[in-house]
Amino acid sequence: MNGDGSGKPTVVILDDDDLMITIETELLEEEGYAVTAFSSGEQALAYIKTASPDLVLSDIMMPDMDGMTFLTSIRGDAGSADTKVIMVSSKSFEFDRRQAMKLGANGFITKPIDAEPFFKTINDVMSDQMEATFWGVRGTLPVAGQKAFRYGGNTSCVTIEFPKDRFFIFDAGSGIKELSGHVLASRGGKLNAKIFISHPHWDHINALPFFVPLYIPGNEFEILGPAQPQITMREMIGAQMDDIYFPITMKEFGARVYFQDLTQGEHEVEGITVTTLLLSHPGNCLGYRVEYNGGSICYVTDNEMFSPDAPYYDPNYVKNLSAFIDGTDALITDCTYTDAEYAAGKIGWGHSSVSQVADIAHRGNVKTLYLFHHDPDQNDDAIDAKLVAVEAALEALGSTTQVVAPSELDKVRV
Question: What is the pTM of this model?
Answer without folding.
Answer: 0.90
